[in-house]
Amino acid sequence: MKNKILSAILCLTMVVTMATGCNTKGSSESTESTSGTTETNSEVEKEFVGFAISYTGNDFMQGLADMVKQKFESEGYDCQVSSADGDATTQIEQIENFVTMGAKMVLVMAVDPTGLKDVGKKAMESGTEIVAFTTKIEGGETTYVGSASENEIGTAIATLGSDWVNKTFPDAADGSVETVIFGYSGTPEAADRSKGIQEEIAKNTKCKVKYMEPESNTLDAAQQAAENLFQTNPDTKLILCYNSGMSNGVNAYIMSSGLSVEEKATFGSDISAEVMTNIGASKTNASIVRGAVSLGDYDAMWDDLWVPCKLILTGQKDQVKPEYLGETELITADNLK
């Protein structure tokens, strides 16, 4: 009897032990599973990148903002874009906000680069790298990415205009082709581009050059400036613009004004769908946007930009060069792709 009782106790003990073991194993598996889920969540948590863009007031700039966001996200990063709408103070606040949000890197197209040095330095000191894009922030950037020097861009814009003058008015006398520059000097870099336009077009002695600055470097401002210009100087033949958004504004006025278009032209820089359409239409004089300086299409710009950004985001900042410069291309209706 005692043996039967002892056997029963042993069996019961084994059952309890096995049950406890099963529960322990199940608990362990549950813990491992939960831990695995936590690790997975940690792995998919995306690092944050900010893009502080100066403005998105034309097709090119809006397209650029959309492209940068999409490209960073396709590389596995969370990207937020903030437009300063041309306000330098707003841009400083946006950069500070990105830093507070824990951005690993902030890409900056400056409204006023001279006012961003301090906020850029503070950002870098707190662990957020600053990539200045198209406009340098001297002393407040990790690196600078641009298509070319601003002066070179201005020179290229004027070269397009000068070539058009020589082709359209081969026998023109010196100082007979009324030429206006719609410049912009809101930043030192912008002033350098405008200076490049002035210096290069001055080499063409056929051109009688006048420099002026619309209220801003936007399509609407240039359209209004063009209206005012042609009311006082209807013989203007060539308008060289700081950017292609302004060229589109000039074109918008001319094409709605009833003025003749055959011997008129405008040129600027940056490429967008609207600019390309207008350049193509100039072949039949359905537009006076007869060319533009391309700083590279969006894909080319991204390829240049991604080189230092990838190094920064993957912990290889020590391999980042101080600046990365691309090349310009002169686009006209004759070589339009």
UniProtKB/TrEMBL annotation:
Signal peptide positions (record): 1-19
Keyword GTP-binding among record annotations: no
Alphabetized GO MF terms: carbohydrate binding
Biased composition (Low complexity): 23-41
GO cellular component: cell envelope
UniProt keyword annotation of Signal present: yes
Organism superkingdom: Bacteria
PROSITE patterns registered for this protein in UniProt: PROKAR_LIPOPROTEIN (PS51257)
Residue segments, region Disordered: 23-42
InterPro entries according to UniProt: Peripla_BP_I, SBP_2_dom
Subcellular location: Cell envelope
Xref: Pfam families: Peripla_BP_4 (PF13407)
Domain Periplasmic binding protein: 49-296
Keywords tagged on the record: Signal
The family this protein is said to belong to: Belongs to the bacterial solute-binding protein 2 family.
Protein name: Sugar ABC transporter substrate-binding protein
